[in-house]
Amino acid sequence: MVRRKRSILVSDVDGSSVHVHTRLGPNCRTTSYVAAPIMPEGEVIGFVHADCYFHGRDVDELDRDILMIFAEGLGYILARTILVEQLNSLQSDLRLLTRRVSAAAAGSLSTPTSEPRLHAVRELTRSPHPSSPQRAYVLTERERDIMRLVAGGATNTQVARRLVLSEGTVKWHVKNILRKLGVPNRAAAVSHWLAAQQNSAS
What we know:
Strand order of the largest sheet: 1-2-3
Structural class: mainly alpha
Number of helices: 7
Largest sheet: 3 strands, antiparallel
Radius of gyration: 23 Å
CATH architecture of the largest domain: Orthogonal Bundle
Helix content: 40-55%
Low-confidence stretches: 109-114, 123-137
Number of domains: 2
Strand content: 5-15%
Distance between the termini: 50 Å
């Protein structure tokens, strides 16, 4: 399914020639099942399985095709969710840019360039009211979720599996996080994140 990105039908769980988990039949009491890949953005991130045990019959090609349609719909929903998160992140960036441009136009941009970064660090683990002018400096909720996992040592692949995202989407979020914090790499971002947590705790 990963290689061909197509749904499959396993008609003989106990004696099938394909690789089937040996306990699947006894534990689920199923003799056949269909499976389909979930593919937001065209990348396989998971699978859905179904059987007709409660209907007292084996699955067939129609069941396989129906499950594939369902999996495609689920993939579209996940892709839309990812797009909304990316748009929210871009909106946050635009708010930050607007704030800085406004401050420069008013002639009040007298603080060192490192000050916005320091402010962002202090606000990383907070969730201020949306009307707060400091909101522009705060990472989005998804970006904070990713930073928690990255700070725990998770790779992009592990983060993608944990949050049910594509690896490409995780890379996109990480790139945005680095840009917002003004740091060159993940290690520096983790350092900022841990410092922010300590400051928040104190």
